[in-house]
């Protein structure tokens, strides 16, 4: 199926879902605030070949990135019914470059070969920057990127993440500003320059409750 047709079908799937996946029931809004938001600030080279989407919910941004750029996505979320729904719909649409796992990001380190495994990590609307860095950095290769979708509040969160960045082996490389229907949005791009200590991510809930300071 052609890319734009796949995007259209996937959005229709999201807005008609019986479980509340994305908070939009209008096609045009969902098209802009989900698909355009996911793809506009991204470049194919950011993702590399394999990326992880932590807290993908309804497959955002992971499904749209896989369709748009052809990279292989590994999409995780702690809510199994969301992952099941998204997985089934992607299978129906024959989107083949995606894998899914229902798991907390904190627990992925004990499952499979995923430590320092991905070329990049993406995450949108999951938690504050310091928390999300702890949930993503351990799974990205040295030299890879972490790309976080944020609103205008990102500056304060970034200021509170200086120690987390140092501790996790990541540094800020770029902030890409873009606008969706008059709303300012930012893609915060980090580079992983060093290995992340084995103790990260800490136990379930700790990255959220006690972000690295
Ligand atoms: C507000 S939703 C955002 C979903 C999607 N990324 C989007 O932009 O529409 C946050 C999602 O993150 C998931 N989540 C939160 N903490 C998580 C964790 N530690 N590990 C895996 N998933 C997590 C939640 O289950 C939820 O589906």
TrEMBL record:
The keyword Repeat does not apply. It is found in: Cytoplasm. One of its GO terms (molecular function) is rRNA (guanine-N7-)-methyltransferase activity. Its EC number is 2.1.1.-. Transmembrane segments: none annotated. InterPro entries: rRNA_ssu_MeTfrase_G, SAM-dependent_MTases_sf. It comes from the Bacteria. One of its GO terms (cellular component) is cytosol. Keywords: Cytoplasm, Methyltransferase, rRNA processing, S-adenosyl-L-methionine, Transferase. S-adenosyl-L-methionine binds at residues 55, 105-106, 124. Pfam families: GidB (PF02527). Belongs to the methyltransferase superfamily. RNA methyltransferase RsmG family. Specifically methylates the N7 position of a guanine in 16S rRNA. HAMAP family: 16SrRNA_methyltr_G. PANTHER family: S-ADENOSYL-L-METHIONINE-DEPENDENT METHYLTRANSFERASES SUPERFAMILY PROTEIN. This is Ribosomal RNA small subunit methyltransferase G. The lineage of its organism: Bacteria, Thermotogati, Thermotogota, Thermotogae, Thermotogales.
């Amino acid at each position: 199926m052609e890319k734009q047709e796949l995007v259209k079908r996937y959005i229709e799937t999201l807005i008609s879902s019986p479980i509340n996946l994305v908070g939009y029931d209008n096609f045009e809004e969902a098209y802009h605030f989900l698909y355009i938001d996911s793809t506009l600030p991204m470049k194919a080279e950011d993702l590399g070949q394999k990326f992880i989407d932590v807290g993908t919910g309804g497959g955002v941004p992971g499904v749209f990135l896989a369709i748009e750029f052809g990279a292989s996505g590994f999409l995780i979320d702690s809510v199994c019914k969301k992952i099941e729904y998204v997985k089934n719909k992607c299978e129906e649409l024959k989107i083949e470059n995606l894998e899914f796992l229902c798991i907390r990001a904190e627990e992925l380190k004990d499952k499979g070969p995923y430590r320092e495994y991905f070329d990049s990590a993406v995450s949108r609307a999951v938690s504050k920057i310091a928390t999300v860095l702890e949930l993503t950095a351990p799974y990205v290769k040295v030299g890879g990127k972490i790309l976080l979708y944020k609103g205008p509040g990102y500056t304060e969160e970034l200021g509170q993440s200086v120690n987390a960045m140092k501790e996790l082996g990541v540094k800020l490389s770029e902030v890409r500003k873009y606008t969706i229907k008059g709303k300012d949005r930012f893609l915060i791009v980090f580079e992983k320059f060093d290995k992340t200590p084995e103790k990260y991510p800490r136990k379930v809930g700790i990255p959220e409750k006690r972000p690295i300071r």
